[in-house]
Each structure stands twice: as C-alpha cells, then as structure tokens.
Fold this sequence. Notes:
single chain; Leucine-rich Repeat Variant
Amino acid sequence: MKPPSRFHTSQRLMVAALLVPLLSLWTALAALEPAPDPADLARLLSQAATYELGTSLAPLRGIEDLVRQSASQPALRANIETGLDRLIAGDATYEARRFACLQLAVIGSDRSLATLAGLLQSGETAGIACYALSALPSAKAVEILRDALPAARGPAQAQIIEALGARRDDRSVRQLAPLARDPDAAVARAAIAALGNIADKPACQALALLRTEGIPAQARAVAEASFTAAEKLAASGDRTGAAAIYERYLPPDQPNDLRRGAFGGLLRLDQDGGERRIRQTLTSRDAVLTPVALAAISHLRSPGASARFAADLPMLPPQEQVWLLLALADRGDAAAHAAIQSQLAATDPAVRGAALAAEARLGDARSVPALCRALARAETAEERQAVETALTQLRGGPQTDRALLEELKTPSLAARSYVISALARRGCRDAVSALLAEADSPDGATAKAAFQALGRLASADQLPSLLDRLARLRADDARGDAESAVARLITALPDANRRSEMVCSALARASDLEARCSLLRLLPACAGSQALEAVKAGCAEANPRLRDAAVRALAEWPDAEAWDALVAEHDRSEDPAHRALCLRALARLAEEQNANVSAELIARYRQLFARAQTGEDRKLVLGALAGAADPDALKLALEQLPNASAHAEAELAVRKIAGAVQRQHPQAAAEALRQLGGKPR
C-alpha cells in the first residue's frame, strides 16, 4: 500500500511543541480514572494490527485512551510502549504501524529506538519513523537518524535529512553539505533546508558556498534556507551574521521578492528600527524597495519619526505619497494626523483619497471643518461620496454629530446634501430639527437628502411636521423621497385612526395641486374608513391630475374594504387605464382571500368575470382564481372553458384547483378532469 506523503518539518515541530502541555493535561485527567485491565491493552493492540483506512477506529481510540491514562502510570506506559514496539515489528498493516509511531512520538523512550531504527531501512516506513524520532527528546534518537543517513536512498534519505534538520543536529552538517549537491533533487532540497534550520557556523558556511556556486536549479532552495538561517541567527543574538546573509540578497541583480524579503529582515535588525535605511532607500529612488521602506515607517519606534517623514511628503511622487499616508495613518500620532490633514487639499486625486481614508480612521469632531472644506473642493461625485464616508466614520459620537450640525448652520456650506447624509448614516436623531429646516430648501439635492434622512431618523410623533414640509415642498424633484419618508412614518404609527386623521387633515388644508396629489398617494398607507372616504372623494374631483392620483391610490388599497369603491370606479370611469387599474386591484384583493373561500368571494369572482372585457382581463382573473381550492371555484373555472381567448388559462386553473381539492372532494375533481379528458398536470 502506498504510504502517505512524508511528514514535513513544520508539522513535526508543531506536534513536538504541543506534546508538553498535552502530557500535562493527560496527567491531570488520568489521575481521575481507574487503572486499566492489562488484557484490554493486548486485545486493542491485536485489533489495531489489522486496521486499514475505512475500517473501525474503535481499537485506535481505545489505545489513545490508555496512552492518556498512562501519563500518571509509569508501568502502564512501559507496557503500552512494549506493545507498540511489537505491533511495529510484526506483520501489522502500514496504517497500524503509522498509528503506533504517532503514539511513540508521545510516550516513546530509548526502549523504542531499535524498533524505530528498523523502520528507517524501508522507504515506505522511513517517514513515519522520522516523525517519531523527530519528537523524542533522546539524544540517541538523533544518533540513529545520523547513522541511518549514509545507507538511505531516495525518499527515505530525504525524510531522514528533514528530521535531522528539525532536530538542528550540528554534528550532521558534514554529511548534509555534500548531499546539498546530490543528483536527486528532493534529497538536495532537503539537505539545503536542513542546513538552514541548523544554522550553526559550518552550516552557514556550507550555504555561503552554495550561494557562491549559484547553481540555477538550487537558487531558490538556497535562498529560502539562507533566510531561515538568518532568522535563527537573529533569534540567537547573532545580528551581524544574520545581516550578512540578508545583505547578500539586497543587490539589484537579485530577484525582486528576495530583495524585498532581505530588506525587511535588515530593517528588523537595525538598532534604530530601520529609520536610517528607510531614508537612504527613499533617497536612492529604488522602485523595488521603496514600497517596503514606506510601509515600515508605521513600525518605527522613534516618536519623532512621523514629523521627519511627513516633511518629505511634498517631495515624493503621488503613489509614494499614498503609501506614506497609509503608514502615517498606522502610526496615528499627532504629527502623523497633521500631515494627513494637510493632504486633504492635495492636487492629486489618489493622494486626496488616501488622506480621506486615513482621516476617517484617525479623525473626530475636530476633523469636521477640514472635511467640509474638502467637500467644497471635491471634483467628482465619487470624491464627495468619499468625504461623506469619512464624515460618517469619524469617532467622537455625539460631539462629532454636534460639529456636523454646526457646519449645517453655515449658509455657504457646499454640497450640504452629503453632510446631511452623513448625519443620517451616523444615526444622529438630534439632527431632526435641522433636517426639517433643510427639507424646505429649494435645492433638490439638499431637500432629497433631508427627506431621506428624516425617513431614517424621525419618529412617528414627528409625522405632522413632515406632512407640513411635504405640503409646502419647494424642490419638486424631491417629491418622491418626501413621500417615501412620510409613508415610512405613517406605517410606524400603530393607531390607524390617528394616522388617517393626520393625512386627511393635511389634505384638507392643502391648496397646492402637487401637494394634494402627494397626500392622496399616501392614503393607502393609512388605510381605514376615513382615508378611504378621502380617496373616494378624490376620484370625483374635476381636476384630472387629482382624479388620477386618487384612482391610483384606490388601486393600491391594502384590504378588501375598497372592493365596492373599486367596482364603482371601474363601472363609472371612461378612462381605459383607470378601468384596468381597478380590475387588477380587484383581482389582487380577491386572490388575497383565497385561503378562506366563501360564497361572497365566489360572487366577487363572478363580478370580475362579468367585467372582464378582453382575453387579457379574463386571464388576469383566472390567474387569481386558480389559487382558490374550493369546488365552487372549480365550477367557476369550468364555466370559462368555452371562451376561446382564455381557454388555455381556464384549463390550467381547472387542473390546479382539481389537484388541490381532490382529497376532500374527489368526485368534483374527477368530474372536472373528465370534462378536460385527463389528469392533473
């Protein structure tokens, strides 16, 4: 059976790091459990020996439980180790031996080393043996790996090399250095990586020689190992040795990603956090390293760094100004904030955009005037939207809200609709009074923004004020937003009589034609008899605009209380559009009652068929009737079959209703289908 891919160094190190706390936890838990029966261990090991992928995990889980209990029972621990050794040495499956190695990585001792050493002789099992040997703290485990290396070949050799690298075995460097040039690419890569992990003086010298040789096929592996060695040298305190490695990859003839990585490593090593090196890089105009240098400014420890680099802003090209602004935003100190605010008036749009984004992160109430000036300078709608977003995101809560409201009092405030929108997005309910004043503006954008904000912020108690603003609206292109805002407040008012009274009262006072049309359109949101009477009165108005608004409001009525009025308007009207509106509204109201079919509803459907003058009208009514699961509805649908203009729709309605009623009314359903000559489809 093909073994799984070998364990990687990072996996072994991660597991080894987890073993100590895991064993401590197991020790605490095991003290609470009774001693296991030795016969259980023998039985579980026997069952585990035949384990293969896809079979029961029960014996493996049982052994794991015993391993956990053994943390506080040395005798049990020794017995388990012996049993696992025997399982590995026997004719167990590969999966069983792999499991045994995993357990030995946790509880193994020098007693297991001979068994694990035997696994190193086979390419199939070398990987699982290396896993255990990498985790065991015994120095003899390293000796076994080192001694097995010369005879191993191919994948087994590569896995042993990885294990030696994971153990940072400096005594194996003499063996590993030649293997870094092995014809087997996998072996060579493993040896190079191991040298980087060991990172002692001989290992670093071997890597330096490899860098000098510059074998193209090895260049990337050597670079990665060199960076690993540099990190380990730095961690051990050898900053000079680490810097020497990074400097090797800094010249322009090196790949860009390696140059950037080396530069970042050097910045971390510099005593000043890299400030001097960053400044040198900016002066040299190195296009590859400049983004890294600018980003690193955010991490400089010097408190004066923000002011020093901010002074360089005007001398940088726009893209670099953007990068520097991002770094200053990360620093967030006073000097950084001042530099960011200075760029809100930058000539380049990208720089202004970066400054806006940074100001949104750092700013508070004190930023409001500067952002409002930026709003006046904005050249496009997108930029004004960016300013609005910044105003919305400013910190400071109520204090920032008050600063925005103060700006709103300024008559010369440019693009004030964006400030209004920011207040709405901030959820500033204290702005309602100011927004009511802005709703009176003759400027369409301002009035629209004000009504949109009022729809979000105003309460139902402020409905009369909004109705007054709607009645005297000066910016007609804001009418739709004004009606939407008022409708939202109407629906928020639970008392139907009160909301109807408010709108009807406003309608009675209104003299402006457009205002009266708006108020008529709001009456369906009120519902109730008083509002319905006002709509019916509007349908009798002589002015065609008022009459059209009233008929359309009647057609949107939310409940069947408007049925008789809709029938009357349909029959009275000479306008085909109005008759069509009424018929559609009647079909909608009838369909909404399909869940409770009654004689009255069937009579109403008959009314609709009597008024359906075209095939499209009949199709409309049949579409509504098809949802009525009742024998009388079925009869009515059958009556429509002779009409050629809607025969197909009538047949569909019959089949749908028959299918819905056949359980309770099988005879009626069967008779209907017989007339169609088929079964429900």
